[in-house]
Specification:
Elements: E1 7-11, E2 16-19, H1 21-27, E3 31-33, E4 44-47, H2 48-58, E5 69-74, E6 78-83, E7 91-96, E8 99-100, E9 107-110, E10 120-130, E11 140-143, H3 149-152
Parallel strand pairs: 1-10
Antiparallel strand pairs: 1-2, 3-4, 4-7, 5-6, 5-10, 6-11, 7-8, 7-9, 9-10
Length: 156
């Protein structure tokens, strides 16, 4: 697999780390076919919640509380925030036809049973496991607003 892009993963109770696709897959306790949860879609995937628990266990973090939310950011700065309670079937797609993703590289998040109309996020490069109940029970998504200081100045 291609190894040049790393996915940033963060949890306040564990640590901040950067993973290659191969490293993320190795931490997953089981891989599954995407079509098991997303009909008519092909590819190799791993369960988000199971991956998180495996990561936490491998870092010897005994913190019992699971996250309240997961936030992901794509390479194009698209972000999605989802309550943990809606992620029971969520998974990361990492390969199709035995190859890295052509559309959605490096990993793609699918949330087949969430409340959001945004059922997948392509090209995920950052994943935050958050512990903040005040973020609510609705999934949100959109592009990160980033405006340079020069863009705020009026031009005459």
């Amino acid at each position: 697999m291609q190894e040049d892009l790393r996915i940033q993963v963060s949890d306040l109770h564990i640590k901040n780390e950067a993973f290659t696709i191969t490293e993320m897959v190795a931490l997953a306790e089981q891989q599954l076919a995407l079509q098991e949860r997303v009909p008519n879609m092909q590819g190799d995937a791993f369960d988000l919640k199971m991956w998180y628990r495996s990561w936490k266990s491998s870092r010897n973090r005994g913190h019992a509380e699971e996250p309240s939310h997961v936030k992901v950011e794509a390479i194009d700065e698209f972000q999605a925030l989802m309550p943990w309670s809606q992620l029971d079937s969520a998974l990361f797609l990492y390969a199709q036809g035995g190859q890295v993703l052509k559309k959605g590289y490096p990993i793609r998040l699918y949330v087949p049973d969430g409340s959001s109309e945004c059922l997948n996020v392509k090209s995920v490069v950052k994943v935050w496991f958050l512990h903040d109940q005040t973020l609510g029970e609705e999934a949100t998504f959109g592009f990160k607003n980033k405006v340079a200081l020069d863009e705020l100045k009026f031009k005459k």
